Amino acid sequence: MHSLKHLVAAALTTLLSLATAQTSQRVVDIPTRPGVTQRMIVLTPPEPKAAVVLLAGGHGGLQIFPNGSMKWGDGNFLVRTRQLFADQGLMVAVVDAPSDRQSAPFLGGFRQSPEHAADLKAVIAWLRENSKAPVWLIGTSRGTQSTAYVATQLSGADGPDGVVLSSTILTDDKSRPVPALPLGKLRIPVLVVHHEQDGCSLCSFSEVPALMAKLSNTPRKQLLAFKGGRSVGDPCEAQAYHGFNGLESEVVQQTAAWLIAK
C-alpha cells in the first residue's frame, strides 16, 4: 500500500510537470489607445477553460522586460502565482502599466480613468480572440480598484465575463474605494477573496459584508474567506496575510474552480 501511494504521488508529479512544460509563456504588446501599447506576460496552457487578466496592486508599474522579467512586482500575490493559475487550465495575462505610464506614479491616479478602461478593453478582446474562452478580470489590493471600475464601465462583448476581487480596497481617504463604485451596475459573476486576518487598514475584513451587499444585481456572487498562513513585514504588502502568504495554492485552486464552474 505504501509503495502504491508513492507510485500515485510520482504519477501526479509527472503529470503536473508535463502540464507546466506544455504551458507557453511569452511577452505580448498590443495596441490600445492611439500611440499607446499594453505589455503583458501571457501564459497559455493547452485548451484553456477560461482566461484571466491579473492586475497587481501598489502602483502597478511592473516594467516588464522583453524576456518576461520585471523591475517591480515579482512578489505580488497575483504575479507570483501566475503559473498556479495556468496549472488550473487558465490562460493568464499579467498586465503592466501601459506604455504612456511607464514612470512614477504608473497607475497611481489612473486606475479609475476612461483610458485605463480602454486599455483593458483591448486586453479583454485580445484574450477572448486567442483563448476562445470566457475572460475574467482578477485584481488584488489596488488592482481591485482597476477591476471593479473597468467592470462597471465595460459590459457585454466589451467587458469581462466575471470578476474576482482579492484583498479588496474597502476604505480609502485618497481615492475611491471599491464599495464607493456603482457596483449595482454589475450583471456578471463576482467572487470576493479575502483573508480574515488582513492587517491592512484599507482592507479590514469587517468591511467585507458591506461590499457583498453592494453586489445586488450579480447573477452569482460568493465570498471566499481564508485564515492562517504567514504574515511577514508590512501588513499591506504581499508577504503578509494581505497577500495570502503560505496559502497560494489553496487560494488559486478555489478561485479557479469557482470561475470555471457554470
Task: Report on this structure.
With 262 residues, this protein is an alpha/beta fold. The chain has one domain: Alpha/Beta hydrolase fold, catalytic domain (Rossmann fold, 3-Layer(aba) Sandwich). It is 31% helix and 19% strand. It contains seven helices and eight strands, in the order αβββααβαβαββαβα. Strands 1-2-4-3-5-6-7-8 form an eight-stranded mixed sheet, sandwiched between helices. Helix 5 links the parallel strand 5 and strand 6. Helix 4 packs across helix 5. The chain is globular, with a radius of gyration of 18 Å. About 4% of the residues have low confidence.
Short description:
This protein is α/β, with parallel strands linked by helices. It has helices at residues 2-22, 77-80, 82-87, 114-131, 142-153, 208-214, 248-260; strands spanning 24-31, 37-44, 50-55, 90-95, 135-140, 162-166, 190-195, 221-226. Residues 11-20 have low confidence and may be disordered.
